[in-house]
Amino acid sequence: METTEGRPARLRVGVIGAGRVGSVLGVALARAGHRVVAASAVSDASRTRVEERLPGARVLEPARVAEASDLVLLTVPDDALPDLVEGLAATGTDLRGKILVHASGAHGYGILAPATVVGALPLALHPAMTFTGRDEDVERLANCAFGVTAPEQLRPIAEALVVEMGAEPVWIAEDRRTLYHAALAGGANHLVTLVADSASLLSAAGVPEPARMLAPMLSAALDNALRLGIHGLSGPVLRGDAGTVAGHVEQLREHAPESVASYVELARLTADRAINAGMLKPEDAARLLDVLRR
């Protein structure tokens, strides 16, 4: 599968599941010189993505996509992946020597076992990026890292494919994939929820443009967290301002009761991390935790 230069040979690429992720990975591989020849697409949105992003691809049934390709992207939802793999193997689709790539963060290459036993080459390549379905997804891919998991003998191919797409391969052990994915989902997905909640509360407080107010502060907070970890923390929990935190909880109960539980749990976690880092005095922590237990 490799040329003398150590790069993967030019491959015929098939995309089973031309959704937000599959269509973007298809574009990235095409830009790297591979040829997207086929894709499966059920919904109108998927068919539109194929037409706009993968114009040279024929729309085929999944088994025929695999048959037409050297590298097959299995970019379906996590829960649909096992049945897809088992179905391809059970229907007798010739998978010998074909590179099967899934993009699920929660799974390693083991989930591809039914296809591996009939000769497929399994790779787990997960882009650590959020995909919204907008055009900027393609450009963002070139600046992200991929969680790479594969059999050791296939590691050079897996990492080379990621490099070709302009991204950074980061090796994740097979038994650490779910922990890896939990870390990313907790950071990225919950961040969106927290920011949206903050903006909603600011609107309730009478702020006319919440995003404009939040952007500089949240950008600085994210930068501090990435550079300094917990030592980038600021605010009332770090100061041990139990009265201020109690006031927050009271106002949330009155105006946004659905936000109380998350505020309290995150404040507790913040306090625990600050205590462990030696940043919060024990006596201040005691008063604060007493408020958060009410």
Question: What would you say this structure looks like, in words?
Answer:
- 51% of the residues lie in helices and 13% in strands.
- The protein has helices spanning 20-31, 44-53, 62-67, 81-90, 113-116, 136-141, 155-164, 177-204, 210-228, 236-239, 242-255, 260-276, 282-292, and strands at residues 12-16, 35-40, 58-59, 71-74, 99-102, 121-127, 145-149, 168-171.
- It has an eight-stranded mixed sheet with strand order 3-2-1-4-5-6-7-8, with helices on both faces.
- Helix 1 runs parallel beside helix 2 (44-53) and helix 11 (242-255) packs parallel to helix 13 (282-292).
- The radius of gyration is 23 Å and the shape is elongated.
- The model has no long low-confidence stretch (mean pLDDT 93).
- Form type: elongated
Written as H for each helix and E for each strand, in order along the chain, the element string is: EHEHEHEHEHEHEHEHHHHHH
Rounded to an integer in angstroms, the radius of gyration calculated over CA atoms is 23 Å
Overall average residue pLDDT: 93
Query: Got a strand count?
Result: 8
- What is the CA–CA distance across the termini? 62 Å
